[in-house]
Amino acid sequence: MIKETIITKEAPKAIGPYAQGIKAGNVVYTSGQLPIHPETGEMPDNIEEQTRMSLKNLKQVLEAAGANLQQVIKTTVFLSDMNHFAAMNQVYGEFFSENYPARSAIEVARLPKDALIEIEAVAMI
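^ thats the sequence. predicted structure below, dont judge the formating
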């Protein structure tokens, strides 16, 4: 099986020694996507806009690998505060419809760049 590194300028570049995503056979694994605007490097202030930006970045990495959101089979959502769950969930529903992927949502002590959210995914092509 050949491992392919996924790189796109449409999502923020990796801020460490890791890839934005990896394609292995017909499976795509994304790294956690922070809510960083790829052109400005800025992050929105609220959880709704941070969720939207993280999911847009996730979408771009998937598309660079030849996949899309409808092919996602599992996501993991890392939240800095579980009190943001309902607001995150509402925005998340704008990106995933019917045939939802499996999902875990986890509260963590802190995220890189003090983001409120980070989202990763696994997709089948």
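The mean pLDDT is 97.
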